[in-house]
Amino acid sequence: MTTLLLLALVPIALLISMGAWLRHSTFLQESFWPQAERLGYYVLLPSLFFHSLATAQLGEVPVRDMILTLVLSTVLVAGLLVALRRAVSLDGPAFTSLFQGGVRFNNYVGVSIVAGLFGAQGIALAAVANAAIVPTVNVLCVLVFARYGSHGRLPFNAICRQLALNPLVVACVLGISVQASGFGIPVGIDAVLKALGQASLPLGLLCVGAALNLGAAGGWIKPIGLSSIVKFLIMPLATLGFCHVFGLKGEAAIAAILFQALPTASSSYIMARQLGGDAPLMAGIIAGQTLLAGIVLPIVVMSVTPWV
Description:
- The chain is 79% helix and 0% strand.
- By secondary structure, the protein is mostly helical.
- The protein has a single domain, classed as Na+/H+ antiporter like fold, CATH 1.20.1530.
- It is found in: Cell membrane.
């Protein structure tokens, strides 16, 4: 399992490094990166989420127990972060990056690992995890951005509008609806959405690398450390607790804990850029957690496995 985890993390680290090189070598014009981020947020990532949720093969997966475990553990940890907001001594935009670092997850790594561990059953488990966590974290993050983002506190109707128009939330709702309807996606459209979704992963990681400012790394130690404690320790423990509450065991429990212990998603950076967060800090948290995950993730997963 350790080898598989490391192999899944290596291409992510390499793509982030390549993005940093492309930005600083001026191989691409400066104007390319904001447009690439916009394309990823409004087109590519929604395509990925919609397609993966709409086409999931659920089989014998304990859907209800897995969703309850993942949603409740995410909400619990999110509430803890907000409750401790004043204690961390970060400004509003920086707190949104800490928050995303604590609750979001890199589904590319998760799908790769569980598919390698459990085969076709792993893909079904990953689909359920995405269905549970992706809408939950996107709603929570929009609410946090509305309260603490640099765009200022939004009134209730503006928050509702943000949620209703958020492309990631909309894509998740539509994908789950298509899955529930049983109609599926037409063949030609299916291929287009799949291709767009696949493009979101490398482009998002390149944008993360391009946003890295290593000169400010000294100021990132505290938020990277705090977000990593939440992501690699508190979140998996909360998930383990809810696994016992709902009787989730075996492969489903391992997959749930694994997804909750993943490094934060590359889409966190794009969301920070679009909604008024601290995007450079977010890029640092993504890079820092990705590097830490190579060491911490195997330890976390193998430590909790005997308890499920």
